[in-house]
């Protein structure tokens, strides 16, 4: 028990800034390593299999985001109730909700695998994937979808640990999985000549290893989540509560994924050079956004635990601190991307491909400069979700898709590739304009119009 308590972070007491940093640093490392093994695919595919293979993998971004977003949303959604039980000091409730989440995840992961596998080819056709990269895209994505059970369970286990404030254990597991993924990439692509399917298989294998390590850790080291077979059952009330949080989060992800598919279709129509450039830019965006993502993710346990403990003012304080950190990071990362972006592109694109590097850098720069609005969107959404008000965040996903549509269709129609680069930052602006007043209204209702939340302080 003592070992477990040392790794949890109680967000209901103590200096919140210190606890945000303590939580965010391991999450950031985990996200970086997660991006590292995604980047390993890109580097090895781009260098060993060529630009068409790289573009083929990149053209699946919308499809894979659709599946991964639902997987992540289910894990985060199910873990909200676990976080609330932790904040309320309900040890039996933690086990009950965790066991229920495991059974629900098993059922939903099979359903998700069937749906995505069936939709893979039609969606690639619908998004006008160029003929020269279509086969690469399909071979890659079909293997990824076949391994979604591993993805769903990894996200649930990691999210459940983070709900208790333990952000370090998932990171350690990710580091191990990242190393395995890189080694398998080299073996499957370089030695076994399995092509893009080998890269996808290496990713799935690393996720399976992550699941096995997390299960082993929980069984031997975490008393709160250590359950018996009697806890592995579906409860009507518990399932309803967990699904009421998880489904809106998943719907938000689905709507956003549709927006990504629209943008991807616009890029695909421009040609392989643009697809390769945006793929490279998107990979670097994923790496550089890790710091923003990790700080914002702290809002899930902050909101969940303090909502369960009835300490609503600490949720407001957490939002202010997270947004101050996020906007500060935006300035630093924008300067870094401007000066060092092209050099970083050279990691996985031959320097002779100057046009691809130019388009990739342009894509990256626009995205990074919008990180401040991303901070607003993510932190306020997580605060609402952690407080059990996930339904309000579905509209955020719809607005994000609207922003992508404006960029990919309207602006791209007038200015070409620039419109595609503006699509996501514009979407973040749209959602920020909605999510702040939505949160303020929600807080007033929760506290009977007594709130200390200061909207200006939260968006410094």
Distance between the termini: 40 Å
Strand content: under 5%
Radius of gyration, taken over Cα atoms and rounded to an integer in Å: 21 Å
The H/E string reads: HHHHHHHHHHHHHHHHHHH
- Major sheet description: none
Continuous helix count: 19
Overall shape: globular
User: Based on DSSP secondary structure assignment, what is the total number of beta strands?
Assistant: 0
Flag low-confidence runs.
1-6, 449-460
Q: Output the structural class.
A: mainly alpha
How many domains? 1
Helix content: over 70%
Overall average residue pLDDT: 85
Task: Summarize the model shown.
This protein is an all-alpha fold and 460 residues long. It is 84% helix and 0% strand.
Notes on the protein architecture:
The chain is an all-alpha fold and 460 residues long. It has one domain (23-458). The protein is 84% helix and 0% strand. Helix 2 packs antiparallel against helix 11 (272-288) and helix 2 packs antiparallel against helix 12 (290-297). It is globular. Residues 1-6 and 449-460 have low confidence and may be disordered.
Helix-strand layout with pairing:
Elements: H1 2-7, H2 16-49, H3 51-58, H4 61-87, H5 91-126, H6 131-146, H7 148-163, H8 168-191, H9 195-221, H10 236-270, H11 272-288, H12 290-297, H13 299-309, H14 312-345, H15 354-369, H16 371-386, H17 394-415, H18 417-446, H19 455-458
Helix pairs in contact: 2-3, 2-8, 2-9, 2-11, 2-12, 3-6, 3-11, 4-5, 4-7, 4-10, 4-13, 5-6, 5-7, 5-10, 6-9, 7-9, 8-9, 10-11, 10-17, 11-14, 11-15, 12-14, 12-16, 13-14, 13-16, 14-15, 14-16, 15-18, 16-18, 17-18
């Amino acid at each position: 028990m003592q070992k477990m308590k040392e790794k949890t972070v109680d967000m209901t007491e103590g200096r919140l800034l210190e606890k945000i940093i303590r939580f965010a640093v391991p999450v950031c490392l985990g996200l970086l390593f997660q991006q590292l093994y995604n980047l390993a695919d890109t580097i090895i595919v781009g260098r060993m299999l060529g630009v068409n293979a790289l573009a083929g993998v990149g053209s699946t971004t919308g499809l894979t985001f659709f599946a991964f977003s639902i997987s992540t949303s289910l894990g985060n959604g199910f873990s909200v109730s676990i976080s609330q039980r932790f904040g309320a000091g309900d040890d039996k409730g933690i086990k009950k909700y965790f066991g229920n989440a495991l059974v629900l995840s098993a059922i939903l992961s099979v359903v998700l695998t069937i749906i995505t596998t069936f939709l893979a080819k039609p969606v690639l056709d619908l998004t006008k994937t160029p003929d020269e990269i279509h086969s690469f895209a399909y071979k890659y994505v079909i293997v990824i979808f076949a391994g979604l059970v591993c993805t769903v369970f990894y996200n649930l286990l990691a999210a459940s640990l983070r709900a208790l404030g333990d952000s370090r254990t998932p990171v350690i597991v990710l580091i191990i999985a990242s190393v395995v993924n890189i080694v398998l990439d080299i073996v499957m692509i370089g030695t076994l000549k399995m092509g893009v399917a080998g890269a996808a298989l290496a990713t799935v294998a690393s996720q399976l290893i992550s699941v096995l390590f997390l299960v082993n850790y929980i069984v031997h080291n975490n008393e709160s989540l250590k359950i018996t077979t009697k806890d592995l059952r579906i409860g009507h009330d518990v399932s309803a509560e967990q699904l009421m949080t998880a489904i809106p989060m998943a719907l938000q992800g689905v709507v956003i994924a549709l927006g990504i598919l629209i943008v991807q279709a616009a890029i695909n129509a421009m040609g392989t050079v643009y697809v390769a450039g945006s793929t490279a830019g998107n990979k670097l965006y994923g790496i550089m956004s890790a710091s923003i993502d990790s700080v914002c993710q702290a809002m899930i346990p902050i909101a969940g635990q303090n909502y369960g403990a009835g300490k609503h003012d600490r949720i407001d304080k957490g939002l202010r601190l997270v947004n101050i950190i996020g906007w500060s990071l935006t300035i630093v990362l924008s300067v870094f991307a401007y000066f060092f972006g092209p050099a970083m592109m050279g990691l996985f694109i031959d320097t002779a491909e100057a046009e691809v590097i130019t388009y990739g850098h342009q894509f990256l720069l626009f995205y990074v400069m919008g990180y401040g609005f991303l901070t607003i969107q993510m932190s306020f959404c997580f605060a609402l979700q952690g407080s059990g008000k996930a339904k309000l965040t579905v509209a955020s996903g719809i607005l994000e898709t609207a922003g992508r549509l404006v960029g990919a269709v309207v602006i791209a129609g007038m200015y070409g590739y620039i419109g595609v680069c503006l699509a996501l930052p514009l979407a973040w602006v749209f959602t920020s304009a909605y999510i702040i007043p939505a949160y303020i209204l929600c807080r007033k209702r929760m506290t009977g119009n007594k709130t200390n939340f200061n909207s200006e302080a939260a968006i410094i």
